[in-house]
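A reminder from the course coordinator: this example appears on the midterm review sheet, so study it carefully.

Given structure:
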């Protein structure tokens, strides 16, 4: 599965648009400013927000959408600091301009004492690390998210730790000026062996995207490094352009999978580097079948098996398209007791020449998986795309089951792990859907 901002290995979806802000107290506009049909007044780096928008930002939502500010900011440079005030001119927060995107302004603080700059970045880094120190065992869990973008007050910036290495994901060029203070603060707090940077945006200059992550601090990392997760270990590549081989956001999902695997024949679809397969074996699965279109992913999975003392040739590794493999299994009446589905978050894979669509194809995938799942079997379904809401996801499970002429009962759900905090005013930050269901 891929996501952003985590969203595992893929690009963030630019932000969900909200309805036009309403309820502005435009009659209260001050002398010297003109109420232009409800549009916010912008003056020398200050943006005046309509009542509803100011309320939302004060509650903790980190984005001011372009439609709430109109075209008046377009002469600003991406990354320029912006002060936000409410319609009465009272301070709301500070952030920076994000250029010509759906998100016009990203908010970094609601404290008038904070200026956007190195000190604030360093403070945010310290707070984020302190939170993770409190909630996770850093020795037993070496793969974790230590900065979760807006939820940690560092918009569009994600930092993940893989043992002594750090991987930074930047989601907009507008954070360019914050990079050095960020890397200085990370180096000061954690003394990492290296920091790698992934740029997950198209450069404004039109330059070609990089082919891998860029080393921005420390020395070059080995091709693969070993990270510990509880009782297990995995190889990761911190120099990879997107996915390193182990998704931090699926940590709880892996653990739960292992709990359900005992005495079951497990089919792991979109198996990637086999982390779920390894967990399933660890949990007592009687057999593993892993399906992935990429032969290279299976090669990495075999190395992960070996790393955990499991015979790499024990599991069945099938290189192929999930739908085709499922059709073949159904034809041969092959059955499993547990099927795990964790597809890519965004259109990337091909389905018979067509592009895999996480939204449309999921229902078909559920139906096809249920064809090979024995009665009473366990279906574990994950989705990390922001484009599917929890309720749409549930409906997908329901309709997939109906298509396969059976029923699914959800017996457990998971959300993002604790190192992916979510702001209550920003539910968009919670992109992971994960359900464990039993079929009739
Ligand atoms: N479940 C994995 C993450 C999946 S990443 C985990 O636990 O870590 C998505 C994977 O899907 C990639 O390895 C990619 O090669 C694979 N993939 C994409 N399209 C596919 C398809 N049509 N059939 C099979 N595998 C596919």
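Designed residues:
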């Amino acid at each position: 599965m891929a996501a952003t901002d985590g969203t595992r290995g893929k690009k963030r979806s630019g932000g969900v648009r909200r309805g036009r802000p309403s309820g502005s107290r435009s009659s209260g506009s001050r002398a010297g400013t003109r109420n232009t049909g409800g549009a916010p007044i912008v003056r020398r780096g200050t943006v005046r927000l309509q009542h509803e928008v100011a309320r939302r930002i004060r509650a903790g939502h980190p984005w001011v959408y372009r439609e709430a500010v109109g075209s008046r900011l377009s002469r600003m440079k991406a990354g320029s600091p912006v002060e936000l005030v409410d319609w009465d001119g009272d301070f709301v927060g500070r952030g920076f301009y994000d250029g010509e995107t759906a998100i016009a302004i990203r908010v970094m603080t609601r404290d008038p004492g904070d200026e956007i700059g190195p000190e604030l970045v360093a403070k945010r880094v310290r707070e984020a690390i302190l939170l993770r120190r409190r909630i996770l065992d850093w020795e037993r869990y070496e793969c974790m998210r230590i900065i979760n973008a807006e939820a940690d007050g560092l918009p569009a910036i994600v930092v993940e730790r893989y043992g002594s290495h750090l991987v930074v994901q930047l989601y907009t060029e507008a954070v360019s000026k914050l990079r050095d203070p960020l890397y200085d603060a990370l180096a000061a707090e954690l003394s990492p062996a290296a920091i790698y940077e992934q740029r997950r945006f198209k450069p404004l200059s039109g330059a070609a995207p990089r082919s891998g992550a860029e080393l921005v601090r420390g020395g070059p990392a080995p091709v693969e490094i070993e990270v510990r997760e509880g009782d297990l270990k995995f190889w990761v590549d911190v120099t990879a352009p997107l996915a390193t081989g182990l998704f931090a956001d699926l940590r709880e999902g892996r653990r739960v999978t292992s709990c359900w695997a005992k005495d079951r024949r497990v089919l792991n679809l979109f198996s990637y580097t086999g982390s779920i397969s390894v967990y399933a074996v660890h949990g007592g699965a009687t057999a593993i079948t892993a399906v992935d279109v990429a032969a290279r992913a299976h090669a990495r999975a075999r190395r992960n098996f070996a790393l955990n003392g499991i015979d790499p040739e024990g599991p069945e590794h099938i290189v192929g398209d999930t739908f085709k493999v499922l059709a073949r299994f159904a034809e041969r009446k092959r059955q499993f007791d547990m099927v795990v589905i964790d597809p890519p978050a965004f259109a990337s894979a091909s389905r018979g020449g067509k592009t895999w669509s996480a939204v449309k194809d999921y229902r078909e995938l559920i139906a096809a998986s249920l064809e090979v799942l024995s009665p009473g079997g366990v279906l574990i379904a994950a989705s990390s795309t922001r484009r599917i809401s929890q309720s749409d996801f549930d409906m997908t499970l329901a309709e997939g089951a109906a298509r396969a002429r059976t029923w699914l009962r959800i017996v457990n759900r998971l959300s993002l792990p604790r190192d992916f905090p979510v702001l209550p005013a920003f539910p968009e930050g919670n992109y992971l859907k994960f359900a464990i269901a039993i079929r009739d």
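The longest helix spans residues 118-135. The chain has three domains: 11-109, 118-225, 247-439.
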